[in-house]
Amino acid sequence: MTDITNRSLPPPKNWQDFERMCFDLYSRLWKTNDADMNGRRGQPQAGVDVYGTDRVEGGHFVGVQCKGKDQDYGGALTEDELRAEIEKAETFVPQLDVFVVATSAPNDVKIQQIVRIISKDRTKMGCFEVRVQGWDTIQQLITDHKDVLTKHFSDFAPLDILGRIETGFAITENQGEQTLTLLADIKSQITAIAPDHAEAGDPLQARIIDAAKLTDDGAAHAALLVLQRIEKDQAGKISARNLYRLRSGFGFAHIAMGNLPAGIQDFRAAHAADPDWPNAKAILAIAELLAGDGASAFEHAKEVIAVDPTSYHAAAVILDTAPKDTTLDELEALVPAALHDRVDVQIGFALRARKSGEIV
Question: Are residues 145 and 172 in the same domain?
Fold first, then answer.
């Protein structure tokens, strides 16, 4: 599904926040109650910031070094730094079974190869195993733990957005029965901030899309301010297509901020700016879905699919709003075959099949 696992979380801004986040993350990965932060600032820590018993991997005693306490926070880990951290961790008491260097820098294939060789040689000698986990790995681990994601990325997590939507409007009723796939599909829409890609030769389009992506990065208020500035600067001279992009950007920002009525209004205005474009029609279908008019959303989404069989936005709306007596075979026929391999589409099929009692 198009969700938080497909998005880039920004690393914490300083090493103190990174260390606290690592404590929360690893204590949950280890499923332990004995995780602790080692000492306090200024005390010798033997290269270990967080330690505890990994009760998932055989009760191993694990130490984590949150790399980047000095001026190099966020900088790439070098082989010399890695070996120096290992040497310090050798003095930790009691002896570690596993030593992890966690870094906010991106994963580095060269360092990963080096650490595999070092770790293999060490385990042959009965010494602790060594691992390096860069930010690409860490953020994937974070997305498996809702409480860590919400605590440390509260302005970013779409889980919070979904919570606001759940309390902001009643689940759509489709012929008297709750539409079970609604929230999953809305999540797919919200996390797809820019439905089209920038084309060469249109710098304004690129500016609008970049501004809209601020919402995707957890800065919806900033996105709204930048988009409003663009609207003011370009008053009276913006193309219909870019006006659509601008207003749909307003809509996603408002929804991320919990203002569902404003978001719906923005989406309808986006459609009105360029009503014949399939992407604009898909936005209108989403607006109708959010407003609770499933029948209208369904019809609009079918119109989009008829002219643009690549529109997964429209496919998601179809999956959510198809009449309750639609069979799985009929539903699969409504969604273009080229989209069937998408995970979010497969989940939509499965949810509808479960709802109707069909077996998939």
Answer: no
pLDDT for the residue 214: 80
Amino acid code (one letter) for 316: A
pLDDT grade for 183, boundaries at 50, 70 and 90? very low
Same domain, 108 and 60: yes
Q: Which residue, 104, 106, 107, 126, is CA-closest to 115?
A: 107
Q: Is 47 left (phi over 0), alpha (psi -120 to 50) or beta?
A: left
Structure tokens at 96: 């570690």
Instruction: Determine the Cα–Cα distance for residues 223 and 249; give it in Å rounded to an integer.
Output: 8
Instruction: Report the first-to-last Cα separation within the chain, whole angstroms.
Output: 18
* Per-residue pLDDT at 113 exceeds 60: yes
Nearest to 102 by CA among 70, 153, 137: 137
Query: CA 220 to CA 212: how far, in whole Å?
Result: 8
Q: Which of 94, 117, 151 is the last residue of a domain?
A: 151
Q: How far apart are CA 89 and CA 84, in angstroms?
A: 9
Is this structure's pTM higher than 0.70? no
Q: Give the CATH number for residue 17.
A: 3.40.1350.10
Same structural domain for residues 77 and 143? yes
Query: Residue 201's pLDDT is what?
Result: 67
Higher-scoring residue by pLDDT: 176, 316: 316
Distance from C-alpha of 264 to C-alpha of 151, rounded to nearest angstrom: 28
Residues in the chain: 360
Task: Answer for the pair 132, 112: CB distance below 8 angstroms, yes or no.
Answer: yes
Whole-number Å distance between alpha carbons of 25 and 39: 18
Q: What is the pLDDT of residues 240-286, one digit of tens each?
A: 999 999 999 999 888 888 888 999 999 999 999 999 988 889 889 98
Structure tokens at 228: 């409003």
Distance of alpha carbon 147 from alpha carbon 140, whole angstroms: 14
